[in-house]
Amino acid sequence: MKKKLGLFAMMMILGLAACGGDGSETTGDREENMPAKKVEATMAPEDAVTETPTATEAPTATPEPTATPEPTEAPEPDYEAMARNIEAKLTIYFDAWKNGDIETILSMTKPEDELYEYLTILKEYENIERLLQMVYADIIFQDYSEALADRVKYSNGKSSILVTNKVAMPYSYLIADRIPSTLYQPGDIIEEGFRPADDEEALEIISKLVKDLPLEARNIKISMPDAEGNFYVLEGERYFDFFANELNTYELDEEYLLSYVEELFDPLGDKIVAAEDSVYTDYSAEHWPKIIELFLHKDFDGMFEYYTVLFDGSDLRTYEFALYDENKELLLTDAQLAFLNDFVDKIEVFHCDIARVGNKEQLDTIYYICPAVDSLDEEVQAWYTENDIKEVTYESFSRFPSDAITRMTDLYMSAATDAKRIIKE
Fold this sequence. Notes:
five-stranded antiparallel β-sheet; three-stranded antiparallel β-sheet; 8 strands
């Protein structure tokens, strides 16, 4: 019995040693036998060990910083190409006037413009193409201008462009005043209420009146071209003023040609052409014969002198210090004076000479058709000279004699100023 108890006691001691029941193992021994998660939970953050990813988990890559792209500037527009496009389309536009092509004119005219309404009405009637071809046959467009590209560039953002090119159009205000000398002889009486019998007679009269009209330069204004390079011509009404000045839209019907000629003749009815016994009847009657004579002979010195008669010695030349010295002599070199004299020689004088039938009252209008001058732009001046472009000044003698003289002498002094700018020697 004692032997059995001894053996049992030994077995118990060995079992307790195997189970660690006496609590005497070290911390290191515990850690080796604890689950991994338990170990992590008890570690300080700075001592944490990064877990190795499993075969199914790809390591997360740290993205590279993205560089901010540099802003790119839009390429500079080709202003030279834009200018050439404008010139090409304006050539088409003015050729359309010469050819009587109303549809092309309308395509480059704003529908809101009065000209659009006017031509839309007229295109429904006969002979309108013939009329345009007759009146605008001699149009000259300046199809190249070195300055246009810059004008386009600096008009960017604006709604319109004043084109540097010019166009020469017939001077339409002279048409009616050409009737007496073109269609009548001195001493003839222009009948009152004249109206052509038909379109053919009307066109024949118009053809005579517009023949060899002076060509006067005009400015061109267009809307800013769109992305396709298309634009409207904004000065169109001015190019059609030979007709629009006489007839309103409500007067346009199938007899528009007859009505137009009738309107031209209306203020001339019951007048004598170049009457020999006419008289001046207004309060300046004593001065007009002398002034008319001076104007017809382009006697500018005589005009200055007669002005002093009208104003008790007051002389227009004394106010032009840059042009005249104290002796009233022009401050021009020989070359500049030659330019001025040549300008005066080239002035064409046109006299509309009529008188009323009843009291023989004389009614004059004198036109000075002068060479066009642009003393600031050599390119434009060369174009003027090459194409014989004119500037027109006129006086109808319906005001004071001094006003008439001032108008014509201003023209002379402007030409003298041009001479100083153009001729530098």
